[in-house]
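User: Let's play a game. I give you a shape written as tokens, and you guess the letters that built it. Ready? Here's round one.
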């Protein structure tokens, strides 16, 4: 048994250590010495792994360019070699490697001496099977010496040779393109290398899925319920430490089954031509009501209102059922239901890539999220010695359990707020009354389905409780057209923009048109897209974005604040999020005119936002 534990741990560590060797970029400047008025070139050579390519649109080099700046130099346009494979007039594909050249001229008034240069190559590699990695940048630090005219005479010849070499490279690239068009590539030319690199990249993102699932445990969505699961392990550890591993594995099975079902839903939607973001189920009022009803029932159980058992079980069986395997399985499902409202570090960045995978790989991706989510409990099961710090059983366990019941009741309150945001006040009253009916049915079940009552009495009250729960739901919970809130038409203020509801003064409603107008006016913009059901969004807003200090810093930096509400289904917001290679909320970005947007992780801090604001040029 001990050997199996260490073997399992070794496999996990080996998987975590699997990383992909990336591409490389080499920068150079030539000639190294120039005098005022002379010309030179900065080059950046991108090495491209097998199985990938870099595309270039000659009419719009938005994702592939070389740039640099220095007050002593004036720069020309980037020189691109002809594509090694000319797919169309607007797409040249480069394989193996590609070198971009940025010509420059030393200004006539440039002072002599050594100068430091910083060149940036922006690129966006894609797999040959069509999927693309997120855009990336490489920065190279270079040095150039500006010398008096006499000292630079010997370097003039090198400058001419460099220009000639660039022209020769373009001629060679055109010839290669012609050859490739004449002889179409064969799919099986380099199957081993292509498969190896494609597999390596997929493994990297699968690793991120595992880590993302692990970090889900400490997001605001899940953190409140972790003590409940820990308490269950405590009970199991003191009753029979030998069964701890089995309970944690069954809990993990509940998690994995749940994530597999979610993956199946996404695969089905994709097959039907639909696109959805992470957390889309929370935009459905009925899903939210069912979830809050489950949480409410779980809270009543922790408060001792009822214990879920089958009629006819004796006292010993009931005691066993409290820590039974079914409880561990449904505990995994319950944890999953709480987790899917949040994305965390790693997940937010890799979900767009995952949704481009084939259906089997997408299923594997979600299963790895589930494995990462359950991993802390699996490790406790493998190494039960970690439970030695747990105090002995006592009254504290009952107090702890009941306290957790009130934590769940608070979560019910937050879910009721989401219900109100999705529906109307009239429907919220229906939901509140249903919770009263549900509470009565569960009390009746807990009161009469006991060992001291006959089996017949237990069956009667079990069926009666079920009828009340189902019948009450059918009567009170169907959503009618009048239960849906009408869109509230808000008036623009003197700025011409609409103030954002449920946000401090100074935040305005986001739309692509408003954003485009502000960019055209050369104004920096901070965008916050969140949802009422997103706990991470609320945490970011309460602890960072809506605080007085942060609002003052936004104002001092001249930033316009825009907010999008993704509580309900909104195809415009979903497209905006997906266009930035994200799949869900929270979505936060700073837009500085003339620069690439600065995207923030799912959980942000004051420091992150301040560092981003410092990149705004003074005076904007």
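Assistant: Ready! My guess for every position:
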């Amino acid at each position: 048994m001990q050997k199996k534990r260490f073997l399992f741990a070794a496999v996990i560590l080996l998987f975590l250590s699997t990383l992909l060797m990336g591409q490389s970029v080499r920068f150079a400047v030539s000639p190294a010495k120039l005098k005022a008025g002379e010309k030179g070139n900065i080059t950046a050579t991108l090495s491209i792994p097998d199985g990938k390519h870099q595309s270039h649109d000659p009419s719009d080099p938005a994702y592939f360019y070389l740039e640099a700046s220095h007050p002593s130099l004036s720069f020309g346009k980037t020189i691109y070699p002809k594509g090694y494979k000319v797919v169309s007039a607007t797409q040249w594909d480069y394989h193996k490697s590609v070198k971009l050249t940025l010509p420059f001229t030393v200004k006539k008034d440039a002072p002599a001496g050594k100068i430091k240069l910083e060149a940036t190559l922006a690129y966006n590699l894609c797999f040959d099977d069509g999927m693309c990695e997120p855009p990336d940048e490489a920065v190279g630090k270079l040095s150039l010496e500006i010398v008096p005219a006499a000292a630079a005479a010997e370097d003039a010849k090198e400058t001419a040779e460099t220009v000639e070499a660039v022209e020769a490279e373009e001629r060679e690239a055109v010839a290669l393109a012609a050859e490739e068009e004449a002889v179409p590539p064969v799919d099986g030319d380099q199957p081993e290398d292509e498969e190896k690199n494609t597999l390596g990249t997929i493994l990297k993102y699968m690793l991120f899925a595992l880590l993302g699932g692990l970090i889900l445990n400490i997001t605001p969505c899940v953190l409140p319920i972790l003590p409940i699961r820990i308490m269950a392990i405590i009970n199991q550890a003191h009753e029979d430490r030998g069964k701890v591993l089995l309970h944690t594995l069954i809990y993990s099975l509940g998690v994995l089954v749940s994530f597999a079902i979610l993956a199946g839903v996404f695969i089905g939607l994709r097959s039907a031509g639909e696109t959805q973001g992470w957390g889309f189920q929370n935009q459905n009022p009925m899903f939210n009501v069912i979830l809050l009803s489950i949480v409410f029932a779980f809270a009543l159980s922790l408060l001792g209102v009822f214990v879920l058992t089958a009629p006819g079980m004796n006292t010993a069986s009931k005691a066993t059922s409290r820590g039974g395997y079914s409880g561990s399985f449904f505990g995994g499902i319950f944890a999953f239901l709480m987790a899917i409202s949040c994305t965390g570090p790693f997940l937010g960045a890799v979900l767009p890539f995952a949704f481009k995978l084939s259906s089997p790989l997408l299923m594997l991706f979600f299963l790895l999220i589930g494995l990462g989510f359950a991993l802390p409990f699996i490790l406790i099961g493998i190494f039960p010695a970690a439970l030695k710090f747990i105090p002995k059983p006592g009254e504290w366990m009952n107090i702890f359990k009941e306290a957790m019941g009130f934590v769940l009741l608070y979560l019910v309150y937050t879910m009721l707020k989401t219900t109100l945001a999705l529906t109307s006040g009239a429907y919220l009253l229906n939901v509140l009354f249903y919770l009263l009916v549900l509470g009565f049915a569960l009390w009746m079940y807990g009161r009469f389905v006991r060992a001291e009552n006959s089996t017949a009495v237990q069956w009667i009250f079990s069926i009666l409780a079920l009828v009340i729960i189902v019948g009450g739901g059918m009567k009170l919970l169907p959503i009618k057209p009048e239960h849906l809130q009408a869109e509230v038409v808000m008036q623009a203020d003197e700025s011409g923009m609409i103030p954002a509801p449920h946000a401090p003064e100074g935040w305005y409603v986001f739309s692509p048109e408003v954003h485009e107008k502000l960019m055209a006016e050369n104004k920096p913009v901070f965008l916050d897209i969140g949802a009422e059901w997103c706990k991470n969004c609320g945490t970011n807003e309460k602890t960072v974005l809506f605080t007085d200090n942060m609002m003052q810093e936004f104002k001092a930096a001249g930033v316009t604040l825009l907010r999008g509400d993704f509580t309900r289904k909104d195809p415009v917001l979903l497209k905006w999020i997906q266009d930035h290679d994200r799949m869900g909320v929270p979505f936060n970005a700073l837009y500085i005119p003339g620069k690439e947007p600065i995207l923030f992780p799912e959980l942000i801090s004051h420091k992150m936002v301040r560092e981003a604001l410092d990149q705004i040029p003074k005076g904007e």
